[in-house]
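Below is a filled-in request sheet from our internal design queue. Each sheet records the structural input a requester submitted and the sequence that came back. We keep these sheets so that new team members can see what a complete request looks like end to end.

REQUESTER: design group, bay 2
PRIORITY: normal
MODE: inverse folding
CHAIN LENGTH: 274
BACKBONE (tokenized):
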């Protein structure tokens, strides 16, 4: 079984992460080696806010699905503690209030579909779905996780209950990971045609692979990574001309960059920069 120690996702996407850190505790944890072909990492989010206060957490989601265990004050639509979140193509907002605890399994782009044998397109823009690909005993074991356990204990349990689902890595999925890695790391790739040429894949096959495994189009994924790049620059204190930032990450002009940024983030880049 091939290793997948290389990252296939950034840690960007959370809007104004410095503000989020004032209200919640976020930890990222590694999965077991046997799950690395499909799972990027685990993450743990917990909060305990004063009565009458709340914090809105806003995220530009990654092109990946998440399996999560959620207790306490949960988000809208969560009834049972174990849920699946599909690839979301819009900003994802959650009102955090009172106290809560969430343990998430962040799959690699395409990883959830390859791991469970499902079609990712069916989960596109589905924020809460039932964990139907998993056995009842698996879901029951995950539901028992909570803040009474140490993070490493949770990680050990999740490693153990997901291990039986490991299978031979589908060569088609492996090809998706190689394409995703190129999109993520090669900042000169700003158009899908360049991705096709770089990875030696035709247009129709690329679209079919992303429909089956990722659940979003190649153009959307490529554009999301470049927006993540720009967001990271702004969060790290970039104060230069926005036209230069736009050009660096592939927009033809500042106007196009501003329009796409505002559509996804909710405010213009100049406002976010303040």
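RETURNED SEQUENCE:
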């Amino acid at each position: 079984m091939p290793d997948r120690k290389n990252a296939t996702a950034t840690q960007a996407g959370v809007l104004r992460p410095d503000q989020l850190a004032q209200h919640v505790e976020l930890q990222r944890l590694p999965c077991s080696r046997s799950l690395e072909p499909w799972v990027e990492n685990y993450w743990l989010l917990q909060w305990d806010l004063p009565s009458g206060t709340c914090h809105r957490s806003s995220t530009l989601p990654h092109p990946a699905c998440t399996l999560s265990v959620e207790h306490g004050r949960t988000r809208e639509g969560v009834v049972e503690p174990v849920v699946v979140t599909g690839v979301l193509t819009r900003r994802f907002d959650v009102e955090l209030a009172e106290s809560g605890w969430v343990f998430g399994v962040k799959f690699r782009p395409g990883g959830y579909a390859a791991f469970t044998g499902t079609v990712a397109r069916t989960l596109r823009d589905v924020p809460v779905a039932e964990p139907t690909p998993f056995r009842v005993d698996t879901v029951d074991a995950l539901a028992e996780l909570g803040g009474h356990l140490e993070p490493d204990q949770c990680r050990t349990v999740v490693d153990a209950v997901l291990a039986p689902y490991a299978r031979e890595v589908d060569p088609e999925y492996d090809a998706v990971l190689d394409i995703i890695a190129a999109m993520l790391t090669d900042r000169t790739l700003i158009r899908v045609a360049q991705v096709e040429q770089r990875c030696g894949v035709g247009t129709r096959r690329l679209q079919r692979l992303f429909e089956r495994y990722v659940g979003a189009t190649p153009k959307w994924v490529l554009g999301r990574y470049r927006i993540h790049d720009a967001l990271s620059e702004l969060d790290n204190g970039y104060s230069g001309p926005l036209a230069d930032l736009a050009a660096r990450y592939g927009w033809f002009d500042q106007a196009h960059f501003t329009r796409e940024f505002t559509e996804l983030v909710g405010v213009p880049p100049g406002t976010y920069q303040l």
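SHEET NOTES:
- The beta strands are 24-29, 39-48, 54-59, 66-72, 82-85, 92-97, 99-107.
- The two ends are 47 Å apart (CA to CA).
FILED BY: M.R.
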